[in-house]
Amino acid sequence: MKNNGDDDVREMLQRILLPRKGEPHDVRMLYLIEAEQNKERLTWGDRVTVTVPAGAEASFQTYFNAFPASYWRRWSQLEHVLLRMNVAGTASIEVYRSKIDGARVAVAGNLITDDVAEFTIPLSHFEDGGWVWFDVTAETDATITEAGWFADRAPGPQIMPDGTEVGPFEKRATVGIPTFNRPHDAVAALRALGEDPLVDAAIDAVVMPDQGNRHPADEPGYDEAVAHFGDRFHEFRQGNLGGSGGYSRIMYEALGDGPAGAAQSPYILYMDDDIAIEPDSVLRALQVARYAKSPMLVGGQMLNLQERSHLHSMGEVVGRRDFMWTSAPHVHYDHDFSRHPLSDRGAYGDDPDAPNSRDLHRRIDVDYNGWWMCMIPRVVAEKIGQPLPLFIKWDDAEYGLRAGVHGFPTATWPGIAIWHMAWSDKDDAIDWQAYFHLRNRLIVAALYHDGSVDGIIRSMQKATIKHLLCLEYSTVAIQNEAMKDFLAGPGQLFDILETSLPRIAAIRKNYSDAVVLPSATDLPAPSGAPGVPTRDIGGRLAKVKKAAWLLKGLKHSLGKEDPRHHETPQANLSPIEARWFSLSRLDGATVTTAGNNGVAYRRRDRELAEKLLKESRALQKEITGRFDELRGTYRAAQPELVSRESWRRIFG
């Protein structure tokens, strides 16, 4: 197909990748699936060349190599996509697509001998879902090279929300990686960006705000990693301004006149420092952004760094009733591709709740994307401003919501991904981060929630009771601080950007449940728990069972605690056992941290619980009464909070 009279265009959208050498079987399943009946395994000397032995079969219906056609249909300028590869030897190449429920449909196929295989696949049948992929059956030993999904035209101009045109844009990005006391991870991230020549060529600059006291510059390998980028690398040391301060510094420099902004990159790519990245994801995100109909944020998905075949979530939204982030409809948390590849539709007669991959064929629409990996067009950043000064938590969600209000959507794109520590391995719902979770949620709700505040208040009340039943008094104490700081208004947000964390840490030191001991063996052996359940209460009668245990827990909580259990715990509980229906019947128990590196001794204190509950209720009542007023105050202050001038005063 000719492109406006020019020579034929073949722009790579997504390379077909092979696993790295030495990857275990479960991780290889993200890239290719070898038929069980194969007598010999496929081999590859690099990540883009694979040899299929004669008689062997392989499928590329995998997370990193199938083409998420429904996303390209929804968001891109393209009407069709090309599958193209070089075949040395003889092999049958069969192309398939899926329906929204994962059902397979044959699209095309050919027997190829020492030739280029090219197939044109229309995107017309992917309105709500579907992938495209290919399978290989080798008649002789066959080597496949330069395989990938291509566009046969260059990207065209994009339409801004006001109807004006911008672009088309070049395939270039400034990559920003804020770091805080993770020097080894930061150096590893730099190495990963430089290891692929095609990725390296697309990077205009790398910006690394260093906010800690353990510096990447002191880490072995740093000098070599930085030397690779030369004058494209820019480090900025600053105080601990949290994630929002780090990412705001990246945007500030990328849009500025200083050395980091000299390249005037059309895209700014945010990445966490504690990730492992599939480098091709950078190129894929760039191509999605360039071929989009309108400027949009392109988000990478999160795979589990410790169980690397697991996908955390296909996308997230903010619930409009309680204004809490949650998985988007039809998303299943922690999907294991090694057990349930894209081809797994479940067996006939299966339990409807049995795991399968049907819903992974749907297109998932989101409100925002986490900043573990998110590409923001320069034109969007120039239009809507800097991140909000929230330190951590909700800064990425707020930016996605703000972009949406201005007409710039966000898509969380399958096959664009990083590996990151699982949320389940953190205590951030109960540790110092609980302050930022609640304060920032309320701030963002004031900015974007137009409905009744009752749903938000009810969810807060429920959370308070649950924390108290779990003897998490420090969590309630700092959540009360969060409500106070929200009620204080937006004028103080920059003032407390660097001081909130030390203040919250000082408060938590007063509560035993926030003090981590090296081991439960540092305390006397447990005296024994009074027959409390430690497993989740499930089944058809779950609600009835939980109601009964709630009554038991409340009855026990209203009684005076036994001080003997403040010296000798009644139980040593793992995180999965430390539930409200177990802890609410105890006066003292150790609970292992989510990271499995120590324990906290939780001691029931009825008087303290009553005091915290009374304060919490009073603050929730004040929020209810003043929310309309605060909505107006925060919205009026937003332009100043996200301006370059305000952040310039912080960066100095």
From TrEMBL:
<dbReference type="InterPro" id="IPR045699">
    <property type="entry name" value="GlfT2_C"/>
</dbReference>
<comment type="similarity">
    <text>Belongs to the glycosyltransferase 2 family.</text>
</comment>
<protein>
    <submittedName>
        <fullName>Galactofuranosyl transferase GlfT2</fullName>
    </submittedName>
</protein>
<dbReference type="InterPro" id="IPR029044">
    <property type="entry name" value="Nucleotide-diphossugar_trans"/>
</dbReference>
<feature type="domain" description="Galactofuranosyltransferase GlfT2 N-terminal">
    <location>
        <begin position="13"/>
        <end position="152"/>
    </location>
</feature>
<dbReference type="Pfam" id="PF19320">
    <property type="entry name" value="GlfT2_domain3"/>
</dbReference>
<keyword id="KW-0808">Transferase</keyword>
<dbReference type="InterPro" id="IPR040492">
    <property type="entry name" value="GlfT2_N"/>
</dbReference>
<feature type="domain" description="Galactofuranosyltransferase-2 C-terminal">
    <location>
        <begin position="456"/>
        <end position="651"/>
    </location>
</feature>
<dbReference type="Pfam" id="PF13641">
    <property type="entry name" value="Glyco_tranf_2_3"/>
</dbReference>
<keyword id="KW-0328">Glycosyltransferase</keyword>
<dbReference type="GO" id="GO:0016757">
    <property type="term" value="F:glycosyltransferase activity"/>
</dbReference>
<comment type="pathway">
    <text>Cell wall biogenesis; cell wall polysaccharide biosynthesis.</text>
</comment>
<dbReference type="Pfam" id="PF17994">
    <property type="entry name" value="Glft2_N"/>
</dbReference>
